[in-house]
Here is the input.
Amino acid sequence: EVQLLESGGGLVQPGGSLRLSCAASGFTFSNYAMNWVRQAPGKGLEWVSSISGSGGSPYYADSVKGRFTISRDNSKTMLWLQMNSLRADDTAVYFCAKVRYFDSSGYPSLVHLQDWGQGTLVTVSS
Amino acid sequence: QSALTQPASVSGSPGQSITISCTGTSSDVGAYNYVSWYQQHPGKVPKLVIYDVNNRPSGVSHRFSGSKSGNTASLTISGLQAEDEADYYCSSYTTSNTLVFGTGTKVTVL
Here is the structure.
């Protein structure tokens, strides 16, 4: 059974930093791209970032480019999102999500998010 | 990248069919068949119900179906049931190597 467990959320001041973690289990982690998706309170889903199974080819939404960095360690089956220069509009629940198709399938690394974690809440406020 | 456009709400009676539209551009929905649909019950995690425009993951009811014409994708729920009451989001890969979600549709079972 695929399990994704996010952690690291909390309250941070504007301009501050936070590092989110996602512990993965139940599948061959290195075979799948991983994504971060966020949802502001009472709002819709917003894709944040993706990374291929090998750890290359990171992609970012324009809203976080230059401020957030996605990374992974396949030996530890861990995914991270380093968030810097945080703003009030970054307040959201952050989900990590595994794609449906493995890396060599030819599908882009950020489509068809098959499995989701429970999310971790990030609140940016003074 | 602007969000894909969905109706804010759609409603139907039990047993009826409803269709949710998802309108994008030639840079996203119209460019690829990488359209997905997600169901999210209040306080719950999103669940993939349609991928590749019209495919259902294992375990998803056959009452869910998808289609696409030009820049608009659609999700149809037939034989509407109380458990289908939820928020639904479409998503599409874009020519900028990003993923864009729809604005979301609240489905109400009358």
Summary: Chain A has a mean pLDDT of 96. Chain A has no helices and eleven strands. The first strand of chain A starts at residue 3 and ends at 7. The two ends of chain A are 40 Å apart (CA to CA).
